């Protein structure tokens, strides 16, 4: 009798367009309702979709509303790249010779560290020690549009918005591409010491930092230029690094390669120029990257924007062989691949691959559709393993979730991609409930006045702690704002 009465009240509430009574919600549904209607989210847009392993709805709130995904966009890029390029795809870098010229050709490898350039130089040295011509850089595998067309110019100097190039370099083993490390150390009685890694003439450093208290050092490259100004304060003996993008990754990569050649006794008499490799040039050295399935780990764990955009242009090159990879061709290829995975691309807008663009629009339902479809793909083990794990301290395990949800039922359980922009927080992935059910979830919040990250953590923890189906699982339910609509489930 109580259930019948509650159903009548809920149906009446729906017909009259008024909020259903709180008693209509229970279990995890009630918990999520309470979390997502808190005062901190007043005026914000909340989009959530939770599905069971078979894809049936468990919880929905504005799940069909288009919102900004921030770095949840990387879920779309990763899945599309696995479909278009394949999990075994490798980037290739070659060194060739013709006459007196030495040619260095890139295909976008984001893992080219100083050590890997050194390996290329060592291979060259084993065959030839002197070149009377020039070092010719070939970056024509991609187009030469370096930055997303709607990225903020204020972010230009940051390492996480570095220019995209077919010939680039990685400052470290984390695959921070197209950016150098500004390394500083506090020194008593004088300014902090500042060095650049890899060593390069691509940037000119002006050191205005002081040795004092704490660690507030910042480094900013002037818009459109190569001058990097270091400011702030650092305590004596304390050290750190700041990533700063370079104006032209191909030029910096060429400089890193020249330095490696010198270390191995190889001289190139002429200067550095750009140009395509002649078809008759002889191969002297080749380096291939790890397969995409392994590159996914730093990409998704550490949320690397540079890898995301490199994958987009690589997809463009694969879709239009013989033409330089570009954002337009790559995003079109990615969108088509997502459609084949069952994502309704009519409501999808992709402005880039990383989530920096404010022209990315996605629904929570599209994300759970993708995450559910991924379970059935042969590349799923690599995709799942690359997602950050809540509370895992190792950066290459926990990634962007390593400091979150520690000591909760979500720790070591939730595998999900984070997303953060000013006014945007997102968390989407997989969770196992307390009673062993496997759920897929997407939760995105736009327009909160303070970070909504803690709220999203509470959502994930509530799912991890849940047991059994929601109390009102018999009828399907859909939420728009605070209104609950109960609809009879059709078999």
The poorly predicted ranges are 1-25, 470-477, 481-491
What strand order characterises the main sheet? 2-1-20-19-18
* Total number of distinct structural domains: 3
Mean pLDDT: 90
Count of alpha and pi helical runs: 12
Helix content: 25-40%
- Give Rg in angstroms: 26 Å
CATH architecture of the largest domain: 3-Layer(aba) Sandwich
GO molecular function: serine-type D-Ala-D-Ala carboxypeptidase activity
Region (Disordered): 467-491
Signal peptide: 1-24
EC number: 3.4.16.4, 3.4.21.-
Summarize the structure.
28% of the residues lie in helices and 23% in strands. With 491 residues, the protein is an alpha/beta fold.
Blueprint (SSEs and pairs):
Blueprint: H1 2-16, H2 27-36, E1 45-52, E2 57-61, H3 73-84, E3 92-98, E4 101-105, H4 114-127, E5 130-131, E6 135-138, E7 179-185, E8 193-197, E9 204-207, E10 210-211, E11 218-221, E12 227-231, E13 233-234, E14 239-245, H5 249-263, E15 267-268, E16 272-274, E17 282-288, H6 292-301, H7 305-319, H8 327-340, H9 364-374, H10 380-385, H11 395-398, E18 415-421, E19 424-432, E20 438-446, H12 453-465, E21 476-480, E22 483-487
Parallel strand pairs: 4-6, 5-15, 6-16, 9-12, 10-13
Antiparallel strand pairs: 1-2, 1-20, 3-4, 3-17, 7-8, 7-14, 11-12, 18-19, 19-20, 21-22
């Amino acid at each position: 009798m109580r259930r019948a009465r509650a159903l009548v009240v809920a149906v009446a509430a729906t017909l009259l367009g008024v909020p259903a009574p709180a008693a209509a919600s229970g279990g995890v549904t009630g918990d999520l309702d309470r979390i997502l209607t808190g005062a901190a989210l007043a005026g914000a847009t909340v989009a959530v979709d939770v599905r069971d392993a078979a894809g049936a709805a468990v919880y929905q709130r504005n799940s069909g509303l288009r919102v900004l995904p921030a770095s949840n966009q990387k879920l779309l890029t990763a899945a599309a790249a696995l479909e278009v390029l394949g999990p075994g795809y490798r980037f290739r870098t070659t060194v060739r010779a013709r006459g007196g010229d030495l040619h260095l050709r890139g295909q976008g490898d984001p893992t080219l560290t100083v050590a890997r350039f050194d390996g290329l130089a060592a291979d060259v040295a084993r065959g030839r020690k002197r070149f009377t011509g020039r070092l010719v850089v070939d970056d024509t595998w991609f187009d030469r549009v370096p930055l997303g067309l709607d990225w903020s110019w204020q972010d230009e100097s940051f390492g996480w918005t570095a220019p995209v190039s077919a010939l680039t370099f990685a400052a470290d083993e984390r695959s921070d591409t197209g950016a150098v490390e500004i390394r500083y150390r506090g020194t008593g009685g004088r300014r902090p010491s500042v060095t650049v890694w890899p060593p390069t003439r691509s940037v000119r450093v002006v050191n205005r930092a002081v040795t004092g208290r704490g660690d507030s050092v910042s480094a900013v490259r002037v818009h459109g230029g190569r001058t990097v100004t270091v400011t702030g304060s650092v305590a004596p003996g304390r050290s750190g690094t700041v990533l700063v993008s370079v104006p032209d990754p191909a030029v910096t990569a060429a400089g890193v390669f020249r330095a490696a050649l010198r270390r191995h006794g190889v001289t190139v008499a002429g200067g550095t120029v750009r140009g395509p490799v002649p078809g008759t040039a002889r191969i002297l050295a080749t380096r291939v990257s790890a397969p995409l399935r392994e590159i996914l780990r730093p990409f998704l764990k550490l949320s690397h924007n540079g890898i995301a955009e490199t994958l987009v242009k690589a997809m463009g090159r694969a879709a239009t062989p013989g033409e330089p990879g570009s954002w337009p061709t790559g995003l079109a290829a990615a969108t088509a691949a997502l459609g084949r995975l069952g994502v309704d691309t009519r409501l999808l807008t992709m402005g880039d691959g990383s989530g920096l663009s404010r022209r990315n629009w996605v629904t929570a339902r599209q994300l759970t559709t993708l995450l559910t479809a991924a379970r059935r793909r042969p590349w799923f083990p690599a995709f799942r393993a690359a997602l950050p794990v809540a509370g895992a301290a190792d950066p290459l395990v926990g990634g962007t979730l390593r400091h979150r949800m520690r000591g909760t039922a979500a720790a070591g359980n939730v595998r999900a991609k984070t997303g953060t922009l000013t006014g945007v927080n997102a968390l989407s992935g997989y969770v196992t409930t307390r009673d062993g059910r496997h759920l897929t979830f997407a939760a995105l919040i736009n327009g909160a006045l303070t970070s909504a990250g803690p709220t999203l953590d509470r959502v994930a923890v509530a799912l991890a702690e849940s047991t059994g189906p929601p109390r009102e699982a018999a009828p399907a339910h859909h939420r728009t704002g605070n209104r609950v609509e109960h609809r009879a489930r059709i078999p």
